[in-house]
Amino acid sequence: MGTGWAITSTMIGGIVVCGAIGYLVDLLVGTERVFTAVGIVLGAAAASYLVYLKWGKERGDDGA
C-alpha cells in the first residue's frame, strides 16, 4: 500500500471510529448528535497527529 493510501485510510478510520463512538454515546445519553460531532472532530485531530508521528516527523530530530 502506498503512503498516500495509508494516510487516507488513517484519516478516514480515525474519523469513522471516533464518530461511531460519539454516536453510541449520543444513543446512551439521549442527546442529538452532540457527541457524534465531538467524536468526529477529535477523531480528525487524533488521526492528524498519528499521521504526523508516522510520516511527517523529521527522521533523527529528537527535539533538542
Task: Describe the secondary-structure layout.
Blueprint: H1 3-29, H2 34-56
Helix pairs in contact: 1-2
Summary keywords:
2 helices; mainly alpha; 64 residues
Instruction: Indicate how many domains the architecture comprises.
Output: 1
* Gap between N and C termini: 33 Å
Oligomer: single chain
The Cα radius of gyration reads: 15 Å
Query: Strand share of the residues?
Result: under 5%
> What structural category characterises the helix and strand content?
mainly alpha
Total number of helices: 2
Mean pLDDT: 91
Contiguous low-pLDDT stretches (5 residues minimum) are none
Q: Please report the total strand number as a whole number.
A: 0
Sum up the overall morphology in one term: elongated
Q: Order of SSEs, N→C?
A: HH
Helix content: over 70%
Largest sheet: none
Description of the structure:
The protein has helices at residues 3-29, 34-56. The protein has one domain. With 64 residues, the protein is mainly α. The radius of gyration is 15 Å and the shape is elongated.
Task: Summarize the structure in short.
This protein is mainly α and 64 residues long. The protein has helices at residues 3-29, 34-56.
